[in-house]
Amino acid sequence: MNFNRIESENFEYQNFTLSKPPNTSYENCTFINCDFSNGDISGIEFIDCCFTSCNLSLVKLNKTGLKNIQFSDCKMLGLRFENCDSFLLEVNFDNCVLNLSSFYKLKIKKTRFINSSLQEVDFVETDLTDSTFKNCDLLKTVFERTNLEKVDFSTAFNFAFDPSLNRVKGARFSQTNLSGLLQHYQIKID
Protein backbone atom coordinates (compact mmCIF):
# COMPACT_ATOMS: atom_id res chain seq x y z
CA MET A 1 0.00 0.00 0.00
CA ASN A 2 1.42 3.40 -0.95
CA PHE A 3 1.17 6.06 1.70
CA ASN A 4 1.17 9.79 1.45
CA ARG A 5 3.59 11.10 4.03
CA ILE A 6 3.07 13.90 6.53
CA GLU A 7 6.29 14.92 8.25
CA SER A 8 7.15 17.10 11.24
CA GLU A 9 3.69 18.58 11.77
CA ASN A 10 1.90 19.44 15.00
CA PHE A 11 -1.76 18.59 15.46
CA GLU A 12 -3.48 20.31 18.39
CA TYR A 13 -7.05 19.98 19.64
CA GLN A 14 -8.08 17.90 16.61
CA ASN A 15 -11.21 15.77 16.88
CA PHE A 16 -10.79 12.47 15.03
CA THR A 17 -13.78 10.75 16.67
CA LEU A 18 -16.12 11.07 13.72
CA SER A 19 -13.73 11.15 10.79
CA LYS A 20 -10.69 8.95 10.41
CA PRO A 21 -7.38 10.74 9.82
CA PRO A 22 -6.16 10.34 6.24
CA ASN A 23 -4.75 6.89 5.45
CA THR A 24 -1.19 8.07 5.38
CA SER A 25 2.14 7.86 7.14
CA TYR A 26 2.86 10.36 9.92
CA GLU A 27 6.56 10.78 10.60
CA ASN A 28 8.02 12.87 13.42
CA CYS A 29 4.61 14.41 14.16
CA THR A 30 3.17 15.57 17.46
CA PHE A 31 -0.46 15.15 18.52
CA ILE A 32 -1.47 17.33 21.48
CA ASN A 33 -4.91 17.27 23.15
CA CYS A 34 -6.41 15.35 20.23
CA ASP A 35 -9.49 13.17 20.63
CA PHE A 36 -9.40 9.82 18.81
CA SER A 37 -11.81 8.05 21.21
CA ASN A 38 -13.98 5.33 19.66
CA GLY A 39 -12.38 6.18 16.33
CA ASP A 40 -10.49 4.17 13.79
CA ILE A 41 -6.81 4.62 12.95
CA SER A 42 -6.50 1.23 11.26
CA GLY A 43 -3.95 1.00 8.49
CA ILE A 44 -2.23 4.27 9.41
CA GLU A 45 1.50 4.31 10.08
CA PHE A 46 3.03 6.47 12.83
CA ILE A 47 6.83 6.75 12.95
CA ASP A 48 8.77 8.68 15.63
CA CYS A 49 5.58 10.44 16.81
CA CYS A 50 4.49 11.80 20.20
CA PHE A 51 0.96 11.78 21.57
CA THR A 52 0.47 14.13 24.52
CA SER A 53 -2.76 14.54 26.53
CA CYS A 54 -4.76 12.67 23.88
CA ASN A 55 -7.80 10.44 24.33
CA LEU A 56 -7.33 7.21 22.39
CA SER A 57 -9.83 5.08 24.32
CA LEU A 58 -11.41 2.23 22.35
CA VAL A 59 -9.63 3.21 19.13
CA LYS A 60 -9.47 0.52 16.43
CA LEU A 61 -5.85 -0.40 15.70
CA ASN A 62 -6.12 -2.98 12.90
CA LYS A 63 -2.76 -3.04 11.07
CA THR A 64 -1.80 0.32 12.61
CA GLY A 65 1.97 0.92 12.54
CA LEU A 66 3.35 2.27 15.81
CA LYS A 67 7.10 2.65 15.36
CA ASN A 68 9.00 4.48 18.12
CA ILE A 69 5.94 6.16 19.60
CA GLN A 70 5.81 8.07 22.89
CA PHE A 71 2.48 8.41 24.69
CA SER A 72 2.39 10.95 27.54
CA ASP A 73 -0.57 11.86 29.76
CA CYS A 74 -2.93 9.92 27.46
CA LYS A 75 -6.19 8.13 28.20
CA MET A 76 -6.04 4.78 26.40
CA LEU A 77 -8.78 2.53 27.77
CA GLY A 78 -9.54 -0.80 26.12
CA LEU A 79 -6.95 -0.75 23.33
CA ARG A 80 -6.10 -3.99 21.49
CA PHE A 81 -2.42 -3.44 20.70
CA GLU A 82 -2.15 -7.01 19.38
CA ASN A 83 -4.13 -5.87 16.33
CA CYS A 84 -1.35 -3.43 15.37
CA ASP A 85 1.21 -4.15 12.69
CA SER A 86 3.87 -5.95 14.74
CA PHE A 87 6.74 -5.03 12.39
CA LEU A 88 9.08 -2.64 14.28
CA LEU A 89 6.37 -2.07 16.92
CA GLU A 90 7.82 0.18 19.62
CA VAL A 91 5.76 2.14 22.15
CA ASN A 92 6.50 3.81 25.48
CA PHE A 93 4.08 5.25 28.02
CA ASP A 94 4.45 8.01 30.61
CA ASN A 95 1.60 8.92 32.95
CA CYS A 96 -1.01 7.11 30.84
CA VAL A 97 -4.18 5.21 31.72
CA LEU A 98 -4.10 1.89 29.84
CA ASN A 99 -6.74 0.03 31.85
CA LEU A 100 -8.50 -2.89 30.14
CA SER A 101 -6.02 -2.89 27.24
CA SER A 102 -4.32 -5.92 25.69
CA PHE A 103 -0.80 -6.67 24.48
CA TYR A 104 -1.54 -10.37 23.88
CA LYS A 105 1.37 -12.29 22.29
CA LEU A 106 3.30 -9.15 21.31
CA LYS A 107 7.09 -8.80 21.33
CA ILE A 108 7.60 -5.44 23.00
CA LYS A 109 11.04 -5.72 24.58
CA LYS A 110 12.45 -2.71 26.45
CA THR A 111 9.06 -0.99 26.72
CA ARG A 112 8.87 1.73 29.37
CA PHE A 113 5.69 2.07 31.39
CA ILE A 114 6.21 5.06 33.71
CA ASN A 115 3.73 6.39 36.32
CA SER A 116 0.87 4.66 34.50
CA SER A 117 -2.27 2.74 35.37
CA LEU A 118 -2.39 -0.72 33.80
CA GLN A 119 -5.34 -2.25 35.64
CA GLU A 120 -6.75 -5.44 34.13
CA VAL A 121 -4.32 -5.39 31.19
CA ASP A 122 -3.63 -8.61 29.26
CA PHE A 123 0.06 -9.49 28.89
CA VAL A 124 -0.55 -13.20 28.20
CA GLU A 125 2.30 -14.70 26.13
CA THR A 126 3.87 -11.25 25.68
CA ASP A 127 7.64 -10.78 25.47
CA LEU A 128 8.44 -7.90 27.83
CA THR A 129 12.16 -8.66 28.22
CA ASP A 130 14.09 -5.77 29.78
CA SER A 131 10.98 -3.58 30.17
CA THR A 132 10.23 -1.22 33.06
CA PHE A 133 7.10 -0.70 35.14
CA LYS A 134 8.09 2.37 37.16
CA ASN A 135 5.44 3.45 39.69
CA CYS A 136 2.73 1.56 37.78
CA ASP A 137 -0.54 0.20 39.13
CA LEU A 138 -0.92 -3.39 37.87
CA LEU A 139 -4.12 -4.33 39.70
CA LYS A 140 -5.65 -7.49 38.16
CA THR A 141 -3.19 -7.38 35.25
CA VAL A 142 -2.62 -10.83 33.76
CA PHE A 143 0.89 -12.20 33.24
CA GLU A 144 0.77 -15.81 32.04
CA ARG A 145 3.37 -17.56 29.89
CA THR A 146 4.92 -14.09 29.68
CA ASN A 147 8.62 -13.39 29.24
CA LEU A 148 9.45 -11.10 32.16
CA GLU A 149 13.21 -11.62 32.10
CA LYS A 150 15.08 -8.54 33.34
CA VAL A 151 11.81 -6.62 33.81
CA ASP A 152 11.98 -3.94 36.51
CA PHE A 153 9.01 -4.24 38.88
CA SER A 154 10.87 -2.60 41.80
CA THR A 155 8.42 0.32 42.12
CA ALA A 156 5.33 -1.33 40.59
CA PHE A 157 2.39 -2.13 42.85
CA ASN A 158 -0.82 -4.17 43.06
CA PHE A 159 0.53 -6.94 40.83
CA ALA A 160 -0.04 -10.61 41.53
CA PHE A 161 1.18 -13.40 39.29
CA ASP A 162 2.54 -16.90 39.56
CA PRO A 163 6.30 -16.88 38.84
CA SER A 164 6.12 -20.57 37.87
CA LEU A 165 3.88 -19.67 34.90
CA ASN A 166 6.22 -16.94 33.60
CA ARG A 167 9.88 -16.47 32.75
CA VAL A 168 11.24 -14.17 35.48
CA LYS A 169 15.02 -14.70 35.39
CA GLY A 170 16.75 -11.44 36.29
CA ALA A 171 13.50 -9.57 37.01
CA ARG A 172 13.77 -6.90 39.72
CA PHE A 173 11.41 -6.54 42.67
CA SER A 174 11.57 -4.65 45.95
CA GLN A 175 11.09 -6.20 49.36
CA THR A 176 7.85 -4.26 49.72
CA ASN A 177 6.19 -5.73 46.62
CA LEU A 178 7.28 -9.38 46.86
CA SER A 179 3.86 -10.37 48.22
CA GLY A 180 2.48 -10.13 44.67
CA LEU A 181 4.64 -13.13 43.74
CA LEU A 182 3.46 -15.19 46.69
CA GLN A 183 -0.27 -14.51 46.51
CA HIS A 184 -0.80 -17.60 44.35
CA TYR A 185 0.52 -19.73 47.21
CA GLN A 186 -1.96 -18.18 49.68
CA ILE A 187 0.85 -17.32 52.07
CA LYS A 188 0.17 -14.69 54.72
CA ILE A 189 2.90 -12.11 55.18
CA ASP A 190 3.03 -9.95 58.31
What does this structure look like?
- The structure is a single chain.
- By secondary structure, the chain is mostly beta strands.
- The chain has two domains: 1-96, Pectate Lyase C-like (3 Solenoid); 98-190, E3 ubiquitin-protein ligase SopA (Pectate Lyase C-like), CATH 2.160.20.
- Helix content is 2%, strand content 19%.
- It is built from one helix and eleven strands.
- The chain has one helix at residues 179-182; strands at 4-7, 10-12, 24-27, 30-32, 45-47, 50-52, 65-67, 69-72, 91-94, 112-114, 132-134.
- The strands form two sheets. The protein has a seven-stranded parallel sheet, with no helix packed on it. A four-stranded parallel sheet has the order 1-3-5-7, with no helix packed on it.
- It is elongated.
- The mean pLDDT is 93.
Key words describing this protein structure:
single chain; 190 residues; mainly beta; Pectate Lyase C-like; 2 domains; seven-stranded parallel β-sheet; four-stranded parallel β-sheet; 2% helix; 19% strand; elongated
Number of domains: 2
CATH class of the largest domain reads Mainly Beta
Average pLDDT for all residues: 93
Number of helices: 1
User: What fold name goes in the CATH topology slot of the largest domain?
Assistant: Pectate Lyase C-like
- The strand order across the widest sheet is 2-4-6-8-9-10-11
CATH architecture of the largest domain: 3 Solenoid
Amino- and carboxy-terminal Cα gap: 59 Å
Uncertain regions spanning at least 5 consecutive residues: none
What is the gyration radius calculated from CA atoms? 17 Å
Proportion of residues in β-strands: 15-25%
- Measured as a percent range, the helix fraction is under 10%
Give the topology string: H per helix, E per strand.
EEEEEEEEEEEH
Q: Describe the biggest sheet?
A: 7 strands, parallel
